[in-house]
Design a protein that fits this description.
The complex is a heterodimer. By secondary structure, chain A is mostly helical. Chain A contains 15 helices and no strands. The radius of gyration of chain A is 24 Å and the shape is globular. Helices cover 26% and strands 37% of the residues of chain B. The interface between A and B is medium-sized, with 19 and 28 residues.
């Protein structure tokens, strides 16, 4: 029914060029758009709105109290610290990996590319367990570490390691795609013109990839702040000491302190919103510069 | 400063790209590397620039060994097919790049860039981004950028390949004028023979990683030394026939071929260029090839004829001036006679794969 109707209708209503771009017949297009919007609303917008509604249900002062309480502040500090270590580490790694994969041919390149994707494929809980097996008291390096009084598991270093692991791929993946699309010609031109390796990187490569880099860093940052599974396994949930923001939210929730839990959770939602805006801006800036 | 390439080999994995290249570019000359895509000409250029490391062989500039030097030490100007301009930098900074990385004083950079922008007729475009320029303008900026550091050698990789026909024509003439002014030793890669013949002092024809023939444009055109060059350079008509007893016979066309005196017939190929052929209404000497006119099409300032040789039915193409064509008062389906003033004949010796004997016969 619908097909016959739209086939008759399409040539008359839409100019040929437009219909080729729009593709789907108009009724189907409306249905698809409506379905997508309904789905988005139900699964994304409503839950996010509920987080804020729940967080603010006892008023602004309760909200402020929940996020300025000492344990919450300690969790925020820890999350920021971990992010400040994990994200720069992975930025440096991502730049190095992106550079060598996109600009050079070498043996084992495909193995490296696959390994970079590994942290995305492994469940965060498994990632956490790996570190427990490696650094925990019963683990491979456990006895040596405890002999030297170094605490990794149930301490900050473990959280940093787990966070670095789960955010490992973001910058590298983003940059590899970006750099491969750009090719090597401009770098070759710079080298022939007499630029050295560092000059080529600073003057040509970095300015060209900066938007891709920024996007990758933004994603890595969001993941580092929001990571739950891997961190949960290695942190030991010591209140005020090894609880990050997501872990603190869980603790509060399990203690039936719902509005406090949602108040702290709303901070993570804000991070997500900032990330989305940043992503949009970066994409827009990159498009503007391309012109 | 002259360029010399000695016995250069390069392969990518299993695929050979260069197979023993020997090349000499005289100081101050403009040489074209002409060949079909995949013939290794761009690889050769990149090896000379130092962007690829050869498996064997040497590159010398002004007699100095360059093979082990990095690209930045060679002081070569390279112009890329797709410009490879720095899109995040202004036109000014693009041209200034080579001077900046050499840490030249600001005043000198300023002066040199202004001078070059004047030279490429892009004054007033300093602040623009490459993305805001036309293709022809971009290629001129790329050229100015390469020239800014006063390179010893200028390499151009299909410099006009990405431009439309009219801009291409203008830039060709401009490149030739520029070379006549600067006298910088230049080597440029092209797959377009008109471009090569129009611009270059010498043309090097490459095929399959090797040099087939090098010489002045007319030399390649008039006396190709092998079938590839005869076929690739100029639009040639090809006839298949055989040679024996000092003659080569292609259907009704019988031409002397003193290279081969045996009685045993040998497969032969003749290449006939349009401008060595003359169409006549009647037989005039007896040596003409009878043809049937299939089609006559006027394109611009020439009439393009399609003929069929009788009786062997090979198709021949012939360009004529319109007034000549009109004077003949012929039309499609008519029979006429084709006088062959000159032909290049190649034979393949039995048992040999590559070697051809060639003979160019003129004044037939």
């Amino acid at each position: 029914m619908t097909t016959t109707q739209t086939q008759v209708e399409r040539p008359a209503r839409v100019p040929a060029r437009d219909s080729a771009r729009a593709g789907a017949p108009s009724l189907g297009r409306w249905l698809l758009t409506a379905a997508a919007l309904a789905f988005l609303g139900l699964f994304l917008f409503v839950p996010l709105a509920l987080v804020f509604a729940k967080a603010l249900e006892k008023g602004l002062s309760a909200y402020a109290a929940a996020i300025t309480e000492p344990d919450a502040l300690s969790a925020i500090r820890l999350t920021l610290l971990v992010t400040l270590i994990a994200v720069p580490l992975n930025t440096v790694f991502g730049l190095a990996a992106g550079w060598c994969i996109a600009k050079f041919e070498f043996r084992g390149k495909s193995v490296l590319t696959t390994l970079i994707d590994l942290p995305l494929a492994v469940s965060p809980v498994v990632a956490g367990l790996v570190f427990v097996l490696l650094f925990g008291s019963g683990g491979a390096l456990g006895p040596w570490l405890s002999a030297h009084e170094v605490n990794v598991i149930f301490a900050v270093p473990g959280i940093v390691l787990a966070t670095t692991f789960v955010t490992f791929s973001y910058v590298a993946r983003e940059l590899i795609a970006f750099m491969q699309a750009q090719g090597r010609e401009e770098e070759a031109a710079a080298v022939v013109l007499g630029a050295g390796g560092v000059q080529t990187f600073l003057r040509i490569t970095l300015p060209r990839i900066k938007w891709g880099l920024l996007y990758g860093v933004t994603l890595a940052n969001a993941r580092a702040m929001g990571e739950f599974g891997a961190v949960s396994v290695v942190s030991g949930h010591i209140r005020g000491r090894t609880n990050t923001v997501p872990l603190h939210v869980e603790v509060l929730y399990n203690e039936y302190a719902f509005s406090a839990a949602f108040a702290v959770a709303s901070l993570l939602v804000l991070v997500a919103l900032v990330t989305l805006v940043a992503k949009k801006t970066v994409a827009w800036r990159a498009r503007v510069e391309k012109r | 400063m002259g360029l010399e390439v000695r016995d250069l080999y390069k392969s990518f994995g299993e695929t050979p790209a260069l197979r023993g290249i020997d090349l000499h570019v005289a100081s101050g000359s403009l040489v074209a590397l002409l060949g079909p895509s995949g013939s290794g000409k761009t690889t050769l250029l990149r090896v000379i620039a130092g962007l690829e490391v050869p498996d064997a062989g040497q590159v010398l500039i002004a007699g100095e060994e360059q093979t082990r030097r990095s690209p930045r030490e060679r002081n070569i100007g390279l112009v890329f097919q797709h410009y490879a301009l720095f899109n995040h930098l202004s036109v000014f900074e693009n041209v200034a790049f080579g001077l900046r990385v050499r840490r030249r004083p600001k005043a000198e950079v300023e002066e040199r860039v202004r001078e070059l922008l004047g030279f490429i007729q892009l004054e007033g475009y300093e602040a623009r981004r490459p993305g805001q320029l036309s293709g022809g303008q971009r290629q001129r900026v790329a050229l100015a950028r390469a020239l800014a550091v006063q390179p010893r050698l200028l390499l151009l990789d299909e410099p006009f390949g990405a431009l439309d026909a009219k801009v291409r024509q203008e830039l060709r003439a401009w490149l030739r004028r520029l070379h006549d002014e600067l006298h910088i030793t230049s080597l440029f890669v092209t797959h377009d023979q008109d471009e090569a013949f129009e611009v270059a002092d010498r043309v090097v024809v490459m095929n399959n990683g090797a040099i087939e023939q090098a010489g002045a444009p007319e030399e390649l055109f008039e006396s190709p030394t092998n079938m590839f060059v005869a076929d690739f350079v100029g639009d040639a008509n090809v006839l298949q026939g055989c040679a024996r007893c000092g003659r080569a016979v292609f259907g009704a066309l019988d031409i002397p071929y003193p290279e081969y005196q045996d009685e045993q017939p040998l497969a032969a190929t003749a290449y006939l260029r349009s401008h060595d052929l003359e169409l006549r209404r009647t037989r005039n000497g007896g040596g003409e090839l009878p043809v049937r006119i299939v089609q006559a099409r006027r394109t611009g300032s020439t009439v393009k004829l399609v003929l069929v040789a009788l009786p062997c039915l090979s198709t021949l193409h012939l360009d004529m001036r319109p007034e000549e064509w009109r004077r003949l008062e012929l039309q499609p389906e008519d029979t006429a006679y084709l006088a062959v003033h000159r032909a290049s004949v190649f034979t393949r010796r039995p048992g040999s794969e590559e070697a051809f004997d060639s003979w160019t016969s003129s004044g037939l």
